[in-house]
Amino acid sequence: MGNVATRKRPGCHHTARSDENEEEEDGPARKRLRIAENHTENEYQKLAFKSRLQKLKNCRPHLKKGTYKVEEADPRPPLPRFIVDDYDNYEKPETANRKEFAIPWFEHLFLPEFPTRSVINEKSFILERQLGRGSFGVVYCASAIHDSERKFAIKMQEKREIISKRAVLQVKREASIQRLLPAHPFIARTYSTWQTRTHLYSLLQYPTGSTGDLFSIWRQRGSLSEAAIRLIGAELASAIDFLHRNDVIYRDVKLENVVLDQWGHALLIDFGLAKKLKPGCSTGTICGTLQYMSPDVASGHTYSHYVDWWSLGVLLHILLTGIYPYPNSEATHHANLKFIDYSTPIGCSREFANLMDRMLAVSQTHRLCSFTVLHAHPFFRSINFSKLEQKDYTPASEIGNAEYDTYQQNDETLDDALFKENYDFDRFDYFNDRF
Ligand SMILES: Nc1ncnc2c1ncn2[C@@H]1O[C@H](COP(=O)(O)OP(=O)(O)OP(=O)(O)O)[C@@H](O)[C@H]1O
Questions:
Q1: Which intervals carry biased composition (Basic residues) (predicted)?
Q2: Would you say 260 and 266 are in contact if contact means Cβ atoms under 8 Å apart?
Q3: Fewest beta carbons less than 10 Å away: which of 6, 124, 178, 404?
Q4: Is 398 in contact with 228 (CB distance < 8 Å)?
């Protein structure tokens, strides 16, 4: 078929074709004649030739006449040298090499927080049992392959889930904050992180002989004694203060994020919502667990580290009374959170009642918003924080000795009387004189 298109048909005049034939037939003589006919072009060539000849004569006067060789001008524009050189000298990587060094995007996405080649990896451990479930995967208790006595928690998160929920930055931030944080007795350490093609792994501190997270403990045993709450509260306060001093706002203090070891010491886990925030700076992301969320976060205005003290207040309130301080148990959106109808817990010590009033005050002027104030509060007066951080106290001995009876919440007359008395007295004592 291709031949049909180029075949000369009878009666059809092909100009280009006939010129080519003429050239072929007459040779260079015929070509010269055609150039001569084109007068303008010819004149131009002559002038150009003369000018180049003159230039050559000027720069090489020692050469005799007639020995010059002028080459025909190249009709194409000169190629920029650097492109030609680059192209000529460019060493294309071997196909095999390229395959070896290429990092797939779903691995690259989680670098450098989750390295792809780690000395410690999932093959170094034996997974024993499941400890809990998070948004993107499962947390296992694991023992080191060469030392079965050493226990760790391994958090295994699915990359697919993380990407589909657009939480890549969140998990990377969590890993980097936890890994850079200095050691603290009440914060779970992150020893290592790595990734496979499908999963992210975090090797975490496992509390020795863990009795589970605080939520499960509270659900099994009910309300805790004030003595136990004092020790657990003080340990968590020490951990939160440490985070703030290291420019970290935690934003997710809740029962589920505290695990206890066999002596009842608290360990703060899950830095999924933590953020680097310098003192005096504020942030505005509405995040956290609704029932623990402070009015400042829920309002959508900017807030700072102090919101963690509100959440700790909610946690301590639940540990003692078994209920949330504000009617938000059914809330599904931050805009629906209500900060009304608070009543001071009754049937507890005046110190604890006052601590709750202070930590859960909606007005920031009345609210307890710093470790210094908490540390000096009468509820924690008996605690030596240096000894606490040395783990000199044993909260386990106090856990389970509940003294608080939740039915007293219904006695409204007593409730009101106690609230007024405590509030006025304490307000004078702590706001004006001491804090
Ligand atoms: N270091 C640890 N030691 C013991 N148990 C742990 C540890 N880390 C996590 N767990 C258990 O696993 C559960 C889920 O862990 P975690 O909350 O860290 O996961 P997550 O994926 O960050 O979840 P979330 O959806 O709350 O962000 C916890 O509630 C706890 O019971």
A1: 1-15
A2: yes
A3: 6
A4: yes
